[in-house]
Amino acid sequence: MLVEKNVPLQALNSFRIVAKAFSMVRVASQADVQTVLANAELAAQAKFVLGGGSNIVLTGDVKALVLKVEIMGRRLVQETGKAFVVEAGAGENWHDFVQWTLQQGYPGLENMALIPGSVGAAPVQNIGAYGVELQDRFDSLDAIDLQTGRLFTLNAAQCAFGYRDSVFKHSAASGSAGLGLAGRALITQVRFALPKPWKPVLGYADLERKMADEGVTQATAGQIFQWVCDIRRAKLPDPRVIGNAGSFFKNPTVTPEQCADIIARDPKVVYYPLLDGSIKLAAGWLIDACGWKGKTVGHAGVYEKQALVLVNHGDATGGEVMTLAKAIQISVYERFGIRLEPEPVLV
Ligand code: EPU
């Protein structure tokens, strides 16, 4: 087991933020994690689990021992009359895994094509796009308790999935999501149940437009995959070219009264009524309406084609990103009375 020291993290986070890890170990199996935990000195250190680094904002150097997850592998676990159950190692790239499932003839993940990051990070924030969330296709996951070394398996209910949320984003002390496993669990494998027969999930305006443009009436999973890739490439920055962490804020939920109040002042506000009676607002629209598109603070900026995405125009520091994020939060609050909550994990 190699403990790397003073590791530059710029290439290991999709925001390309300049920071370093004081120490880091790459883990390629459950046994590797257990080897770390069996070492008294390493076991005693606080730990930070790093996957694809696509949903974090490094606000400084990382003092905790970084466990870089490189657990690979993908396979069909079981085919029943109702579903294909497929499994992937936490270190697999999410998009490559989605593409592999389609090539193998196991459709169901196509709406979530091209989301940056690793398979292991996907359940942490319950990734979602174009009408499908990870929880809709989730079967179970395996993880290791970093305090005890114990292996355990969680089903969907135990993961306490919410909108861009799960038990892995909450600490036990916060008590707001069951167990609270933030900083405590390292996900090793994730299993997905891809329902049979496959049904397309359309209904998103962007997808409907693609169908109409191409004159398609019965979309295939492969076509949806391609459309989602095209839509994302057209409006989201490619992290290999411009550093970013996807949507920087969650879409906020308000009461119908609050929404009516905003509509009265800004009739163009974009909103979606939810099943529970509350209303979700498009944070990108709110930020755009405050004039932020294309603005910068130091090397950090607001993407010119999607105001919900903050980008790194050079060697931005976490400080610059957070200064920009706070300025956006203040202006949205002053104009709309809404507090935007960051979506990525702040490290
Ligand atoms: N809008 C603007 N100006 C902007 C950005 C957006 O007016 O600068 C408007 C758009 O015109 C649209 C609405 O806001 O009417 C919503 O925009 P969009 O369809 O791009 O989706 P979003 O709500 O900004 C969410 C997810 C994305 C996901 C897309 C598609 C969150 C926080 N973000 O974005 O997920 O890809 O829907 O399903 O829920 C991510 O989580 O990192 C992410 C990229």
List the helices and strands and how they pair.
Elements: E1 4-8, E2 20-27, H1 30-38, H2 40-43, E3 47-50, E4 56-57, E5 65-69, E6 74-79, E7 83-89, H3 94-104, E8 128-129, E9 132-133, E10 138-145, E11 151-155, H4 156-159, E12 185-195, H5 205-214, H6 221-235, E13 243-247, E14 253-254, H7 256-265, E15 271-273, E16 279-281, H8 283-289, E17 296-297, E18 300-302, E19 309-312, H9 318-336, E20 345-346
Short description:
The chain has 9 helices and 20 strands. With 347 residues, it is of the alpha+beta class.
Question: How would you characterize this protein structure?
Answer:
The structure is a single chain. With 347 residues, the chain is an alpha+beta fold. The chain has nine helices and 20 strands. The protein has helices at 30-38, 40-43, 94-104, 156-159, 205-214, 221-235, 256-265, 283-289, 318-336, and strands spanning 4-8, 20-27, 47-50, 56-57, 65-69, 74-79, 83-89, 128-129, 132-133, 138-145, 151-155, 185-195, 243-247, 253-254, 271-273, 279-281, 296-297, 300-302, 309-312, 345-346. The strands form six sheets. It has a five-stranded antiparallel sheet. It has a four-stranded mixed sheet with strand order 1-2-5-3. The longest helix is centred in the C-terminal third of the chain and has 19 residues, at 318-336. Bound molecules: uridine-diphosphate-2(N-acetylglucosaminyl) butyric acid. Uridine-diphosphate-2(N-acetylglucosaminyl) butyric acid is lined by residues 129-130, 246-247, 250-251, 270, 282, 284-285, 288, 293, 306-308, 343.
